Amino acid sequence: MIPRTECAIETSGLTKIFGGTRAVGGVDLIVPTGSVYGFLGPNGAGKTTTVRMLATLLRPDGGTARVFGHDVVREAELVRSRVSLTGQFASLDEDMTALENLVLLGRLLGYSWAQARARAHELLEAFGLAEAARRLVKKFSGGMRRRLDIAASIIVTPDLLFLDEPTTGLDPHSRNQVWEIIRTIVDEGTTVLLTTQYLDEADQLADRIAVIDQGKIIAEGTSEQLKASVGAGSVRVRLLDPEQRPQAERVLSQALGVPVHLDSNPAAMSARVSATSEAREIGEYVAHALTELSRAGVAVGDFALGQPSLDEVFLALTGHSTDNPSTEEKAS
Amino acid sequence: MTTIPTTISPTSNETMRSALLARTRPRRPNAFAVTLTFAWRAVLKLVRIPEQLADVIAIPIIFTLLFTYLFGGALAGSTGAYLQFLLPGTISMTALLVTIHAGISLNTDVTSGVFDRFRTTPIWRPAPIVGALLGDIGRYLLASTLVILVGLAMGFRPAGGVTGVLLAVALVVIFALSLSWVWTTLGLVARAPGAVMNIGTTVLFPLTIASNVFVQPQTMPGWLQALININPVTHLVTAVRGLMAGAASVGEITWVLLACLALTAVFAPLTSYLYRNKR
């Protein structure tokens, strides 16, 4: 058990109900100080709601939550002085420039006009936005907006930073930039709670990952532990001729020794490859599978080995896929 | 999928590291400073998006021109005489239509998430709303000035002189600020800025038309007269007319100020309540 002072976040039975639906149904979390904690789940799983409760923006209907030992309801002011939130949709004023946005927030945090301006310039420089300082935020690209949004969250460097889906909708280049920023922030001692829909992202950044579904945590552990239960990778195959799929399914499941999942696309299928047994040979026996397919005369259009998708993680953990009705994320 | 880690150039990484050293939080800002900061923001946006204002100002100016030249002669004997009667009414109407903006901008902040960011800062909680309303004074003054200038160019000659006009504008601004609380309440409840706009105009158009802005109600049916006489806009316009003509009645001004007090007493706490309990 980690001593309370070293806990950035500690919740017990945290619950939020929206009009009869348990958006968050009893979440128990322990996030140690100095780590990156990944919160993985599909839309509507309760990620945003949980984060908003922890950031004191939403009152829990049950359970308790402490941030650095302070209760999020009774000691909200104290919590607010240590945390910062970058919401799912960039919370910036579109009709103001980047500079004005940061100056405004600097003022709200207690800086003088001169200090707020100096700090704004410093951050714009650090985030590669100096040239866009006097441009209206509505003219910004998605990636620039995200960076400015994160800059706005660290005007006073917080001890705990909530990042709600920081890379959703970003192109790969911008996503890498944001990841790099997050790594630097963590390096400098800030604890980060990150919500994401991508296993890849959680794997890249998080020390520990909690998988959340329908308001409940269904798995928790390091990326390695999670992958051990889910499979290290996923082989995806798309055939040139859908007619050959039954044959390809047979060959593939034999070569890999695992069941093959048939996609809704009649030419596609996938299989999870486990890391538990022969991790170092994954590449080898995936290559073997490809050879077997071609030997059997199956025309392959596309063959890829990647991390399991969120959907596959869910299928493995819950037996159902992620497309359950989502009503929560937009509303809260 | 494997990703190629593209690092930001080392220099910017260094500047980022040094930028991250700001761990000491400044002292909590006082309520006054924060409120002024929000007023600054409101004025800034007035300069940034003047087209918002243009939409609202166009209507009263068009009405002033249209009514004066179209009906002026028939209603008051001459266009000049009618203008003296009409202009105080259109100034009031302009300011009232501009008040909807308070709700629209608040709702924009709520729906865009900017509001959440404000709420995670250690500020005096009502500051975003109070500051925005203060900043809106600039909006009302600008709108009133424009309508008065158009009036003066058309031949409006207020007997109350500069003092009378200034007092009249002051009364309009006070009423507008009080009415704004209705829209901030709506702004916290409505789902989208467009909804605030629609509900706002749906309420305000009948309220301003069914008043004494354009004609005196004497020739109207009794039920309509009764309706017009309890319409606060009617009382506002009467008081503004009085001030501009240098013949204000204390009773009318008191009536208006009491109406302001009532609006604020009901809707300011309601706004505040909704604001604090916003999920």
Distance between the termini of chain A: 33 Å
Mean pLDDT of chain A: 84
Mean pLDDT of chain B: 88
**Low-confidence regions of chain B:** 1-11
State the main characteristics.
heterodimer, A: 332 residues, alpha/beta, Rossmann fold, Alpha-Beta Plaits, 6-stranded mixed beta sheet, 4-stranded antiparallel beta sheet, 12 helices, 14 strands, 36% helix, globular, disordered C terminus, B: 279 residues, mainly alpha, 78% helix, disordered N terminus
Describe the structure.
By secondary structure, chain A is of the alpha/beta class. In chain A, 36% of the residues lie in helices and 26% in strands. Chain A contains twelve helices and 14 strands. In chain A, the strands form three sheets. A six-stranded mixed sheet of chain A has the order 6-7-8-3-9-10, with helices on both faces. A four-stranded antiparallel sheet of chain A has the order 2-1-4-5. In chain A, helix 5 runs parallel beside helix 6 (172-187). The longest helix of chain A is centred in the middle third of the chain and has 16 residues, at 172-187. Chain A starts with 6 loop residues before the first strand and ends with a helix. The model of chain A is unreliable at 324-332 (pLDDT under 50). With 279 residues, chain B is an all-alpha fold. Chain B has one domain (29-276). Chain B is built from eleven helices and no strands. In chain B, helix 3 (50-76) runs antiparallel to helix 4 (79-112). The longest helix of chain B is centred in the middle third of the chain and has 34 residues, at 79-112. The interface between A and B is large, with 62 and 46 residues.
Quick rundown:
Helices cover 36% and strands 26% of the residues of chain A. With 332 residues, chain A is of the alpha/beta class.
